[in-house]
């Protein structure tokens, strides 16, 4: 695999990726904002660079002897930024930061692997599985920044003669992630979760181990050069299936009450109005409701067919691990 650099190593996916690379005995460097965040074992087994991807000077310290970059560093606090300043910062890190890395290592690289997102699609209800060549139409600044980067990465690869691959990831879950699944586990554990509508809408998602395995599977493969691949668990889960699986794993009896969609829509409208004055205060708004109730599925056939990647993990064979981690951090 050669000499590897991981940016965003202290993040959710980065942590799993670096642990896997260490396990494989790879020659790894990591670029982190804060050395204090890293595991003691990593200090012994990786070369650590501290800096900020928006600061070219800190990137200039990285050795020019790097073959493969996994570029994971990005911000995504609010996919739709709440102020112009927040939006500027998102582009500064996600686009300019990526450009800085590409420029500082272009001369030595063999393969640049970029973690993109399915936010490049419009996220509107789709009964048919979307593919890599489906229309891209981001509906938020985060998705826009990822699409700009996919194109930038491919452009730099062509210009400087190194391979590039972008992986489009849906929401990723697993130990270390405090996103949607964590919140769902927490709400079910506290008996505060109930289904909106029938809960039979489906969404693609991906276990973090599959993201890591897919990223490693493309390294050095000529066929992956200049390509974009969607990576999922290859299962589209309904909200109800997730709910039943988590409830069973937590030993909680599922609540049979379903909030009718019509009533949820009224709450969401109230949330929209409250949001204008007090962002984040109300638990539901039209955007959250849409995400909770729409079907949005993607196909990962291309990476399976071209690379031979086959996801090992799914929600069912990893839920106990995720719940153990949840219990550990909740005390
Ligand atoms: N998780 C998902 O569901 C998902 C889905 C689709 C795509 N992705 C993409 O996958 C990648 C990894 O996601 P993740 O969930 O692991 O994200 P994460 O947990 O938020 O981690 C982001 C990482 O980027 C680093 N970072 C942020 N700004 C930086 C800067 N200015 N300079 C240097 N490093 C910086 C963070 O450092 P600190 O630790 O110092 O904050 C952290 O290590 C991201 O590119 C994300 O957009 C993730």
Please name the defining characteristics of this protein.
single chain, 331 residues, alpha/beta, Rossmann fold, 7-stranded parallel β-sheet, two-stranded parallel sheet, 12 helices, 18% strand, globular, binds NADP nicotinamide-adenine-dinucleotide phosphate
Describe the structure in brief.
It contains 12 helices and 15 strands. The chain is of the alpha/beta class.
Descriptive account of the structure:
The protein is α/β, with parallel strands linked by helices and 331 residues long. It is built from 12 helices and 15 strands. The chain has helices at residues 12-23, 40-45, 56-59, 84-105, 141-160, 180-189, 208-218, 239-250, 261-277, 286-293, 301-307, 315-330; strands at residues 3-7, 27-32, 47-50, 68-71, 111-117, 126-130, 163-169, 172-173, 195-196, 202-204, 206-207, 227-230, 236-238, 258-259, 296-298. The radius of gyration is 20 Å and the shape is globular. Residues 8, 10-14, 33-34, 37, 52-54, 72-76, 93, 97, 115, 117, 169, 171-172, 179 line the site of NADP nicotinamide-adenine-dinucleotide phosphate. NADP nicotinamide-adenine-dinucleotide phosphate (NAP) binds next to helix 1, helix 4 and strand 5.
Which architecture name of the domain at 3-177 and 204-237 and 297-314 does CATH use?
3-Layer(aba) Sandwich
Low-confidence parts: none
- The CATH superfamily of the domain at 3-177 and 204-237 and 297-314 appears as NAD(P)-binding Rossmann-like Domain
Number of strands: 15
> Which fold does the CATH topology of the domain at 3-177 and 204-237 and 297-314 refer to?
Rossmann fold
Distinct compounds present: NADP nicotinamide-adenine-dinucleotide phosphate
CATH class of the domain at 3-177 and 204-237 and 297-314: Alpha Beta
